[in-house]
Task: structure prediction
Amino acid sequence: MKRSADPAIDFRSDTVTHPTPAMRRAMVDAEVGDDVFGDDPTVKKLEALAAEMVGKEAALYVSSGTMANATAMLTHLRRGDEVILGARSHIYLNEQGGLAALAGAQAAPILENADGALPLDAIEAAVREDDEHCPITRLVCIENTHNLCGGQPVSVEHTEAVGALARKYGLKFHIDGARLFNAAVALNVSAEALARPADSVSFCLSKGLCAPVGSLVCGSREFVRQARRARKLLGGGMRQAGVIAAAGIVALTSMVERLSNDHDDAQLLAQGLAKIPGIVFDPATVKTNMVYFDLAPEVPFDAAALEKKMKERGVLMLTAGPRRMRMVLHYWISPTDVERAVEVFREVMA
Result:
């Protein structure tokens, strides 16, 4: 299936996905109300479905993944608290310091393993003693899948171990599951199994699931009640949001299992790139819909130049470092598109 007007093959992100025809029809026909008053039936249906799929009591619809994480932070934390999280995590690096700016909390970043998992001994070592000179460790966060670690899925077993540590020290546990369903499909487990140990979990509808807008933050009924207050503080109260929530329902009911197609296409891309001289990476590290690779030292141009050369030939991608690139597979990229992109790489790298 191809996009309507754009001739470029867009690997920049799975956020570039357009709503499917079924989503557009659902949006046109959506029954709506005022969600701030709690009477938009389509939003309520989406929230109930989301909560059920991740095994939580309740869910809250928000406009973005960043807002979902910020809402969770404001709900779990008090000013001056400390959060244990990954040094390469989205919350730490890519949300404008929201922990400090919005929640008045500070981060205790620890370096993830190559597969995106936080080392358990490092988590335990980062928990503060009960000392009046120290901030209070209140929360531990993980990211699944882990973007900057190559889109790696974090296992059920590791997530359960983090949850056990959190309970041992009386901490809350949040999962930034922006691509949680990619992780579930890649690991052949349920999203509920991945979310079970956490007090809260967020996930995006607007990435591989193809909805145009929105994320969910899920947890206990009391957590979501408090989270609604945090959403209001962030300016996130939407009115007739059923128009966009309708696309989210289609996403959760028809787009999850097909994520395996994106993972297969990522493997096809990885195998093609691995055969091109000057491209350095291990295809075995590609587990979901993301492909990261580096340019070999002998390549006479950097990542920015490669991005420009590829764009001139109709293939869009993003730099991830001076000599590092990221490509993301999604619904609107076909195996034929992948094969064409590999051909363009061969031309450029030659």
Observations:
- The radius of gyration is 21 Å.
- Residues 9-15+258-349 form a domain with the Aspartate Aminotransferase, domain 1 fold (CATH 3.90.1150.10).
- The first strand starts at residue 9 and ends at 10.
